[in-house]
Amino acid sequence: MQKNKKIKKMIFTYILLILLSLFFIFPFLWVLSTSFKGAEDIFGNGLNLIPKSFTIKNYVEVFTAIPMAKYFLNTLIITFIGVAFQVILASLAAYPLARLDFKGRNLIFYLILLPMLIPVEGSLVINFITILNLQLYNTYLSVVLPGAVSIFGIFLMRQHYLSVPKELEDAARIDGCNEFQVWWKITFPLVRPATSALAIFSFAAFWNSFLWPLIVLKDSNKFPLQVGLSQLNTQFNQNFRTISAAIVIATIPILVFFFFTQRYFIEGYKGAVKQ
Amino acid sequence: MKISRKKQTYIIAFSFLVLPLLLLAVFTYYPMIRGVVLSFSDYNMFTHKTKWVGFENYKFIFNYKYFYISLLNTLKYMIIVPFIQFFAILLALLVNQKLPGMKLFRTLFYVPVITGAVIVSLSWRWIFDVDGILNNILINFNIIDSPIAWLTNEKTAIYCAMFVTLWRGIGYYMVIYMAGLQNIPSVLYEAAAIDGATKRQQFWKITMPLLKPTMLLAFLMSTISAVKIFEEVFLLTGGKANTSTLLFEVYNLAFTEYKFGRSSALSIILSGILIIFAIINFKFFGTGVEKDAKK
């Protein structure tokens, strides 16, 4: 009897899970199917998920009509510079805050956390003016710089640095390592999981960033994917089949990336929620 | 000459900190201060000249029709916060079970988060289109007679954007709740089971109280992002059909009308609203932590 009830519950759980996953991926399935549809397929009954006339014409059109490859390259450049900045700067800033004993340490730490507690939105306009004044308008660097230091990253790295045993450091010091070597050879390698998590988080953030690049980039040859995609509507004059093909092309890399890194997303949040 | 150990540590610490702090200063602290100054001034983008105008920008904002429309929409947007939290907790509980294939379902629920606002909004834009699938379904099932222009109709547009934000947010908070659930030590459940507690009692006496800090963090995060909503509105409706939100107006005033002072004044007001909500949330958050510490 007991076993029967358990199986019933399990079947119910799976049905629920399948329905929910359909709810979450349905728009993508529809976009995928539309991207393979021909002109005669789109009108009339839009419900058909399987195209009547299967064609890859839409994909060909995407690559010939818009600089899709260029958008990809731009996104890659921006993302890699951004991730490098975030990982290096957070690792640097967090180290003395966690491991070194000096006056004003806590004050600096609280100062760094301050913007997290007081969310300020004024930075959009001011940072734009700063970028203009630094003569960085319409450069990749302008996209990256305001997000180069992540407060979340510093916080995450500090938490992980704190867990490194003091004895290891002392042993290294006795062996004649200077403070920089202690950081680079002992502490930094020991927090690899946190570094990877941060790299993955910032990868997703830079890859998907939209508003800021939209503001500081003028030249469409420098557009990352997200900004390029958002402009498709005017370029394709509401031709949804071609836009769907572009959406599919843009979605695949981030899905592949997520597939290989997904465990870090949960692990990363676990560290952050722990407090 | 030998430098004292204390001084040495100081130099080392600051050589680590100098670059991150410099960037924070330029792109985070400076805008906080400069934003306030700019909100009382008129800035000319071409000459880089700033002219003090007193409360003119604020006067403009408080007489600006779209300020009230966007404020109302921002408040409307917050309705989704409790819904996101509720569904996110349910999903987290559902996928936190040890059953085969669970990893796949987690991934599927997280897909809208990882694909980002642009792809999500573009996909939904065509679902809500006049010729889109939503109208097709509704007409096929005889729920409506003629297609509705969901995204250009003043009665529906903002709710469509809210729905997309809700749909996109659930997976994100699900992961946060999963992390929260996995941080609850399993010994607690084992001990409770030995003492004869039912699954329901375990949920209300162990899971919910221990999930409280996570819940408050998630509430804070989703309130703030609801107040700062921009992308879905911008990409789905372009701010038309009375859908603009506060951040949309900040963007609009600065980057389509080039009124940086007015835009700054509005962002100061927006920050004020955010700070109020952060304080409210932290009041709860603070008490949550205190209670935990007393245990």
From TrEMBL, chain A:
<feature type="domain" description="ABC transmembrane type-1">
    <location>
        <begin position="72"/>
        <end position="261"/>
    </location>
</feature>
<feature type="transmembrane region" description="Helical">
    <location>
        <begin position="194"/>
        <end position="215"/>
    </location>
</feature>
<keyword id="KW-1003">Cell membrane</keyword>
<comment type="similarity">
    <text>Belongs to the binding-protein-dependent transport system permease family.</text>
</comment>
<dbReference type="GO" id="GO:0005886">
    <property type="term" value="C:plasma membrane"/>
</dbReference>
<feature type="transmembrane region" description="Helical">
    <location>
        <begin position="107"/>
        <end position="131"/>
    </location>
</feature>
<dbReference type="InterPro" id="IPR035906">
    <property type="entry name" value="MetI-like_sf"/>
</dbReference>
<feature type="transmembrane region" description="Helical">
    <location>
        <begin position="137"/>
        <end position="157"/>
    </location>
</feature>
<keyword id="KW-0472">Membrane</keyword>
<keyword id="KW-0813">Transport</keyword>
<dbReference type="InterPro" id="IPR000515">
    <property type="entry name" value="MetI-like"/>
</dbReference>
<feature type="transmembrane region" description="Helical">
    <location>
        <begin position="12"/>
        <end position="32"/>
    </location>
</feature>
<dbReference type="Pfam" id="PF00528">
    <property type="entry name" value="BPD_transp_1"/>
</dbReference>
<feature type="transmembrane region" description="Helical">
    <location>
        <begin position="240"/>
        <end position="260"/>
    </location>
</feature>
<protein>
    <submittedName>
        <fullName>Carbohydrate ABC transporter membrane protein 2 (CUT1 family)</fullName>
    </submittedName>
</protein>
<keyword id="KW-1133">Transmembrane helix</keyword>
<dbReference type="GO" id="GO:0055085">
    <property type="term" value="P:transmembrane transport"/>
</dbReference>
<feature type="transmembrane region" description="Helical">
    <location>
        <begin position="71"/>
        <end position="95"/>
    </location>
</feature>
<keyword id="KW-0812">Transmembrane</keyword>
TrEMBL record, chain B:
<feature type="transmembrane region" description="Helical">
    <location>
        <begin position="75"/>
        <end position="95"/>
    </location>
</feature>
<dbReference type="InterPro" id="IPR035906">
    <property type="entry name" value="MetI-like_sf"/>
</dbReference>
<feature type="transmembrane region" description="Helical">
    <location>
        <begin position="265"/>
        <end position="285"/>
    </location>
</feature>
<protein>
    <submittedName>
        <fullName>Carbohydrate ABC transporter membrane protein 1 (CUT1 family)</fullName>
    </submittedName>
</protein>
<feature type="transmembrane region" description="Helical">
    <location>
        <begin position="12"/>
        <end position="33"/>
    </location>
</feature>
<comment type="similarity">
    <text>Belongs to the binding-protein-dependent transport system permease family.</text>
</comment>
<keyword id="KW-0472">Membrane</keyword>
<keyword id="KW-1133">Transmembrane helix</keyword>
<dbReference type="GO" id="GO:0005886">
    <property type="term" value="C:plasma membrane"/>
</dbReference>
<keyword id="KW-0813">Transport</keyword>
<dbReference type="InterPro" id="IPR000515">
    <property type="entry name" value="MetI-like"/>
</dbReference>
<dbReference type="GO" id="GO:0055085">
    <property type="term" value="P:transmembrane transport"/>
</dbReference>
<keyword id="KW-0812">Transmembrane</keyword>
<keyword id="KW-1003">Cell membrane</keyword>
<dbReference type="Pfam" id="PF00528">
    <property type="entry name" value="BPD_transp_1"/>
</dbReference>
<dbReference type="InterPro" id="IPR051393">
    <property type="entry name" value="ABC_transporter_permease"/>
</dbReference>
<feature type="transmembrane region" description="Helical">
    <location>
        <begin position="107"/>
        <end position="127"/>
    </location>
</feature>
<feature type="transmembrane region" description="Helical">
    <location>
        <begin position="210"/>
        <end position="230"/>
    </location>
</feature>
<feature type="domain" description="ABC transmembrane type-1">
    <location>
        <begin position="71"/>
        <end position="281"/>
    </location>
</feature>
